[in-house]
Amino acid sequence: MGKTIVFKCGGSVIRELSDEFFENMKELAEEGWKIAVVHGGGPDITNMLKKLKIETEFVNGQRKTTKPVLEVAEMVLSGSINKFFVAELVKHGLSAVGVSGKDGGLLVADYLNENQYGQVGRIKKVNGRMVETLMEQGFIPVIAPLSMTENCETLNVNADLAASAVAGALNADKLMFVTDVKGIMKDENMISSITPEEIKRYISDGVIHGGMIPKVNSAVAALTDQVDEVMIVSGTGSFLAKHTFIGTKIRKQKEAVS
Ligand SMILES: Nc1ncnc2c1ncn2[C@@H]1O[C@H](COP(=O)(O)OP(=O)(O)OP(=O)(O)O)[C@@H](O)[C@H]1O
Ligand SMILES: [Mg+2]
Which residue spans traverse the membrane (predicted)? Predict the structure, then answer.
């Protein structure tokens, strides 16, 4: 049985993904890995809101997803970014199908806190059947982070958390957070391997901050018996060399040094 790998590609890096990145993906597909992708899109949503002159409200440094903001977010995530990504994969010789978490009942969510965040969901249930069907047929599902409530209302979901939930539902062997840095950095050096305990410490002393916090928290949440390794890797270079993944490995325990 083929192994499954889930990639989360940050909005920060989608438009700068290197040819090596796609070649590495192709290599994995040729080795028989089943691949699924979840993507972000923050910067493109911000640009479109500016163009359309839609006012945005910030709560604790986070943009509140009002109904007009959600309309734009869905248009950008499910439309321009999702199809851009699909086209890039096809251009590099891979078969891809763009969907969102609303399709096939993939991501079912509840309001996280409507007063505080607006139309933002907390994922309640994941139904991976549609994604599995696509992967079995040789397609890479490219998933925009949107969800529906039981009443079919659309909610935006954090892409890091969506990727973690999808990896769990698919019993993925690996989850890769693709971003604009080489991995988790400390004093200008990349940390090659880190445990949840060390992550907690680095968050509290500020080594891990900003957008890296939801990412490492989603990574830790994804660690299960099946998903035993989550990685943070760069999308602007190569993440695979001679069958070895390059970046920061997040594991429950440190690897035994032989
Ligand atoms: N210790 C750390 N090591 C590496 N990056 C860190 C660290 N602490 C904070 N960061 C920040 O985290 C950023 C990556 O998270 P960010 O949320 O910006 O990207 P993304 O999730 O890939 O994209 P998006 O959120 O737009 O979808 C890095 O660019 C860096 O500024
Ligand atoms: Mg982010």
Answer: none
Tens digit of each residue's pLDDT (9 = 90 or more) over 25-83: 999 999 999 999 999 999 999 999 999 999 988 887 778 999 999 999 999 999 999 99
* Triad 126, 123, 233: Cα angle to 5°: 85
Asked, for residue 43, whether it belongs to a domain, the answer is yes
DSSP 8-class letter at 137: T
Q: How many CA atoms lie within 13 A of 238 on its CB side?
A: 11
Task: Please work out whether the CB of residue 91 comes within 6 Å of at least one atom of ligand 1.
Answer: no
| Residue 53 structural domain | 4-250
Instruction: Say whether 156 counts as a known binding-site residue.
Output: yes
Q: What is the CATH number of the domain that holds 101?
A: 3.40.1160.10
Cβ of 232 below 6 Å from ligand 1: no
> How far apart are the CA of 256 and the centre of ligand 2, in A?
31
Total tally of structural domains belonging to the chain? 1
